[in-house]
Amino acid sequence: MSQSSGLVAGMERHQVAVYLGALAAGALAGWAVPAVGPGLELAINPVLAALLYLTFLQVPAAELGRSLRDGRFLAAALVVNFVVVPLVVATMFVFLPAEPALRLGVLLVLLTPCVDYVIVFSGLAGGSSRRLLAATPLLLLAQLILLPGLLLLFLGAELAEVVEAGPFAEAFLVLIVIPLTLAWLTQTWAARRDSGRRVVEALGTAMVPLMAMTLLAVVASQVPKLDRGLGQVAAVVPCYVLFLVVMAFAGLGIARLFRLDIPAGRAIVFSGATRNSLVVLPLALALPDALAIAAVVVVTQTLVEVVGMVVYVRVLPRLLPTTG
Prior knowledge:
Blueprint: H1 3-13, H2 15-32, H3 37-57, H4 61-68, H5 71-93, H6 100-110, H7 118-124, H8 129-155, H9 157-160, H10 165-192, H11 194-204, H12 207-222, H13 230-234, H14 237-257, H15 262-273, H16 277-285, H17 293-319
Helix pairs in contact: 2-12, 2-17, 3-10, 3-12, 4-8, 5-8, 5-14, 5-15, 6-16, 6-17, 7-8, 7-15, 8-10, 10-11, 10-16, 14-15, 14-17, 16-17
């Protein structure tokens, strides 16, 4: 095994530690060299699109099609994310700080299910990553349709009008449609040519480094924006922690309601708990200057959530064991 291959294998074995290290490095870089923020902010979408391309590349197109016909799992994913989560958020909403930008940031991130690293963390806990991967386009499309109405319900017309469907549609095209199409084309090449197969094998080793790069870029680009708003942003952290605790048990309830097998049930728990902080960040960045702190609120959720996922990976197999 070459030195580089050994390094990649080590990163894969300890990927949670790598992600936590990337978050810490991003926070340190953003604090020590705030001038890097604007450049890294421009890199977020391209890096995220590459990450999702590698994610889609892991599952053959034929298997993805079969998974999409798994009606019970897809129904459970939709219920947990677009029925249970809004109810949980509505219960917590009255306890949020009154600042409109803070509330908007919390709603943007909590009302949108994750479509990226949820697949990694679910797999680490024995969840069905392939089913989650198959549900990704549907979950993002549902967000595009439902988010404006949910914001209207929570905030009223004035703030709901600030968030347009256009950026979300662009995110769906750039982060889902294009990477998914390229992944299928690459798989076709790999099936017909040895050179394509070798490329796919090489690309498979880039998943963990690219995820770490994405987390570092996101955090480093937003830390300089904290300024004197740290106290305000810190006020939403308990909300994020409470959400993770509540959704662990809510997800278990939905998994049992739909009589899912253990891997599918664990995947549903992760889907309900993890939020779309990376993909929704471009929406927050597009908000007017008066609401600029919303983007930092979104990134703060990432910091809380990744730590929470470490706990989930350890605890969920005990809450939903394979036997007994």
